[in-house]
Write a structure and sequence with these properties.
By secondary structure, the protein is of the alpha/beta class. It has 5 helices and 4 strands, in the order ααβαβαβαβ. The chain folds into 2 domains: about 30 residues; about 80 residues, Nitrogenase molybdenum iron protein domain (Rossmann fold, 3-Layer(aba) Sandwich). The protein starts with a helix and ends in an 8-residue tail after the last strand.
Length: about 120
């Protein structure tokens, strides 16, 4: 009988530890699990640029998903959580409404993130 109780107590203690460990692993940012550097971009076409420069060492996160309007889209809580883990944000920088409206929130989510203005040094037509 005593052995039966000790097995139950071990199960009661071990089960939450295992579940919490699995939960922590599943919630870890993808870039931490893969060892890649997270770089946030505003729109999908920037992903190709980031991947051409960084290759397999980067993981690009798109803020305005395909099919959404950059003039009206707002970042989701999960996107802001991903921004917290990013090392860099490659901004369009050419007056895109999304950046004008939400860059303060994005910067506040990760004050250590490097901000790059992709339009700097380019004459806009």
């Amino acid at each position: 009988m005593k052995k039966h109780w000790s097995c139950n107590w071990i199960s009661i203690i071990l089960l939450p530890v295992v579940l919490l460990t699995l939960l922590a692993i599943s919630c870890a940012p993808k870039s931490e699990m893969t060892g890649k550097i997270s770089i946030v971009v505003t729109i999908l076409p920037q992903v190709e640029f980031v991947q051409n420069v960084g290759g397999e060492k980067v993981d690009a996160i798109v803020m305005v998903p395909p099919g959404q309007d950059p003039h009206t889209y707002a970042p989701t809580p999960s996107q802001l959580a991903a921004v917290k883990q990013a090392k860099m944000y490659a901004m369009m920088g050419s007056g895109v409404e999304f950046e004008l409206a939400h860059m303060d929130r994005i910067e506040a989510a990760n004050k250590h993130m490097l901000l790059i203005d992709c339009s700097k040094g380019i004459d806009l037509i």
